[in-house]
Amino acid sequence: MLGLVLLFAGLAFMLAPTVTGMIERGHADAVIEDFRREALEDVAVSDDGTAYRPKEGDPTYEALESYSAAVREGTGDAVNDPFAFSGDDLSELGLPDGIVGSIVIPKMSVSLPLYLGATEGNLEKGACVVAGTSMPVGGASSNCVIAAHRSRWYGVQMFRDIELMSPGDTLTITTPWESLTYAVVGSKIIEPDDVEALAVQEGRDMVTLLTCHPYTLTTQRYVVFCERVPDAEAQSEPGPVEQAVAAFLPAPAEGSPELGVELALKLVGLAIVLGTGLFLVVDSIRRARRSCREGPDE
């Protein structure tokens, strides 16, 4: 009985983060779906199931384009550390709940709603476009900087496994107007006040992922630079099994030894749980066989 109690307690402890992560992933997917339904309420769906709002004459899209143009020309807002900056000046663009779309990163097994402005509240709910950088509308000489937490947040790993990203890995940003695919071209560790690393690069259509570094600390920032590629190059979104594994097992990373320690502890815990379960099964079989040999009491 004690073994069973320990086994189930261990399973509950081990699986709680994964279950919580999957539940929160479902919540994030629901937020994205509700946003698209509201944003595309009056848009006809094409035969292949896709639907986008027309860009021309859309005041929200034009406002985003205008914001990006100001960034390109050097007349936009100042770029500050996203984990201490409020982008409330973008909250009146007419987008439901401040969401501009979604971002899918197959290599990290994440799909998150994408908010405008890296406010404290927005960072708790998903990924955020950093104010003072380009908006997620693409175009030459643009660099949309997207920030998210590194540690697990309400069960979601967010950008926890960012060090997995390597050249060629893709991400896809979907807005009410289109889907844009970007591929990793490099990564870098920077200081929190290194604004130049987030600047527009002449002629290039880019997205830069930004989060804290190393894992569990905020002393530096880890950035991943991505450049626009044809949408046909987008990697497929991870399935439920991949999502569950990613939620349970942190990816080991040279720059964040804490992730390696966390991975080792989870594997040891898993081994203990499996060992306890195996012992209980073998012990039950042994007891049953002994009982059969002895026969019923006279």
How are the SSEs placed, and which strands pair?
Layout: H1 2-39, H2 59-73, E1 99-105, E2 110-116, H3 120-123, E3 127-129, E4 142-147, E5 170-174, E6 179-190, E7 205-213, E8 220-229, H4 240-248, H5 257-294
Could you characterize the architecture of this molecule?
The protein is α+β, with helices and mostly antiparallel strands and 298 residues long. It contains 5 helices and 8 strands, in the order ααββαββββββαα. It has helices at residues 2-39, 59-73, 120-123, 240-248, 257-294, and strands at 99-105, 110-116, 127-129, 142-147, 170-174, 179-190, 205-213, 220-229. Strands 1-2-3-4-7-8-6-5 form an 8-stranded mixed β-barrel. It starts with a helix and ends with a helix. Residues 84-88 have low confidence and may be disordered.
**Main sheet specs:** 8 strands, mixed, barrel
Order of helices and strands: HHEEHEEEEEEHH
Report helical residue fraction.
25-40%
Class from secondary-structure proportions: alpha+beta
Parts with pLDDT < 50 across at least 5 consecutive residues? 84-88
Gap from first CA to last CA: 28 Å
Q: What is the 3D shape?
A: elongated
Got a strand count? Answer: 8
Continuous helix count = 5
* SS strand fraction: 15-25%
Q: Please give the radius of gyration in angstroms.
A: 24 Å
Give, in spatial order, the strands making up the sheet with the most strands.
Answer: 1-2-3-4-7-8-6-5
Mean pLDDT: 81
